[in-house]
Amino acid sequence: MYDLIIVGAGPAGACAARSAAKSGLKTLLLEKEKMPRNKLCGGGVTPKVLTRFDFKLPQELIECEVRSARMHVGEDLHYFEADETLVYMTSRARFDEFLAEKAVDAGAELRDGSPVNRVEISSSHVEARTQAGNFRSKILIGADGMGGPTARTGGFYESWKPDQVAYAIETEVHVGEKAVQDFLGSSASFDLYFGVSPGGYGWVFPKDDHLTVGVGCRLDRLRDGMDLFSSFVKRVRELNGVEIPKPQAHLIPLGGAANVPSVRDRMLLAGDSAGFAEPMLGEGIYFSIWGGQLAAQVAAEASREDRYDEKTLAKYERQWKKAFGVDFDVAYDLACMSYLDQYDMDRFARYLFDEKKVQECIVGLMNGNLRYRDAKSRLVWPYFKYRLARLGFPFYS
Ligand SMILES: Cc1cc2nc3c(=O)[nH]c(=O)nc-3n(C[C@H](O)[C@H](O)[C@H](O)COP(=O)(O)OP(=O)(O)OC[C@H]3O[C@@H](n4cnc5c(N)ncnc54)[C@H](O)[C@@H]3O)c2cc1C
């Protein structure tokens, strides 16, 4: 019998496994796919992610570093340049494989190619059922992403509501290294497109020899995913005449709206399965890692006390809400104020990019020196000006 089983070796599961193994728990990490496995994702890793690691991220995993953003709103282009890295662009297959290796280095056992079909809880243990056999532990962390079986078969929830998730459709377009360098330009830029989706935005992320191109949309506003994607691609000048591989789609939880439980007797959820993606930009890697680490710490405490009931484990829910859940609520309000609910993106983009205070907030949110809850008070005056502008006062005109 294991002390802890973790289902899913994405960022949440791998980082939970490393943390738990380092605390001395006999830890099993079960992963559906053979590693390295592909994961549909922009692969944008913000600098604050690195602060969660007790090791260095190898330079060879960073395909591009971007310091500036080009915001397209209709025909307008708003440009913002920082004097530090805003995002490290990675390949999720290699990034996640590295994190899983770090879990194994710390003593966790990884069984990849082992899909879990079902999770069963009893009064004495929890059991993960796979085709290759059943595995038992005292406690289990579900980190198997959106739609993974742990949350469903473990009795957390049946499925997500359409207004709690974003639909994201994406592909990788191989344009070659030279074209990527041209795209980056001298200021190392990436692109975000607003007004291209009802309740979402589009992105073009530069990688070593390709561009990751995608567009998101709140699920309850979605009409036709392929249509949404093709119209977006037509808007991207760099992709004119370029062959576009068939895109794939996946869901992202909108953390601010997601009120799903993350704790039951002998079970915790982390990462996407618990809704740990921030609703403004859909950044999930950082919060999945942090949530996975918190879940592992609570599992280690439960093991020391030999108490696995929901009431004892509820401290996990309190901890992640305090750590970043509060920020999701602010980010959700911000998303509603801009592209989720209204269509005044042009003024909003100016509001975002022309204000020095807002630019400082963006850098702080990326490097972790600022949280959404702190950004709120700093944005009061720019926001007030934005509201006045909407009433016809001569701001941002
Ligand atoms: C198109 C798109 C673009 C995105 N871009 C970004 C971005 O640029 N930056 C960012 O921070 N976030 C981004 N996100 C969000 C980010 O990808 C997720 O929030 C993050 O991957 C969540 O990590 P996780 O460990 O919870 O889940 P995942 O990364 O989904 O990992 C779950 C793991 O569980 C495994 N699994 C599933 N079912 C089973 C099973 N039955 N048994 C065993 N294992 C199982 C899966 O194979 C997978 O390895 C994006 C998401 C999408 C869809």
Q: Layout of helices and strands, plus pairs?
A:
Elements: E1 2-7, H1 11-22, E2 27-30, E3 44-45, H2 47-50, E4 64-66, E5 68-73, E6 76-81, E7 87-89, H3 92-105, E8 109-111, E9 116-121, E10 126-130, E11 133-142, H4 149-153, E12 165-174, H5 177-184, E13 189-194, E14 201-206, E15 210-218, H6 225-235, E16 248-253, E17 263-264, E18 267-269, H7 285-305, H8 310-340, H9 345-354, H10 356-367, H11 372-378, H12 380-390
Parallel strand pairs: 1-2, 1-11, 2-8, 5-13, 11-18
Antiparallel strand pairs: 3-7, 4-7, 5-6, 9-10, 10-11, 12-15, 12-16, 13-14, 14-15, 17-18
Helix pairs in contact: 1-3, 1-7, 7-8
Share of residues in strands: 15-25%
Distance between the termini: 66 Å
What is the domain tally? 3
Number of helices: 12
Question: Low-confidence parts, pLDDT < 50 over ≥5 residues?
Answer: none
Relevant CATH superfamily of the largest domain: FAD/NAD(P)-binding domain
Bound molecules: flavin-adenine dinucleotide
User: Which H/E pattern describes the elements?
Assistant: EHEEHEEEEHEEEEHEHEEEHEEEHHHHHH
Count of extended strands = 18
Q: Helix/strand/pairing class, anyone? A: alpha/beta
Shape: globular
Query: What is the CATH class of the largest domain?
Result: Alpha Beta
> Could you say what the CATH architecture of the largest domain is?
3-Layer(bba) Sandwich
Examine the coordinates and then state which fold CATH places here, giving the name of the CATH topology of the largest domain: FAD/NAD(P)-binding domain
Mean pLDDT score: 91
The largest sheet, given as strand count, sense and whether it forms a barrel, is: 8 strands, mixed
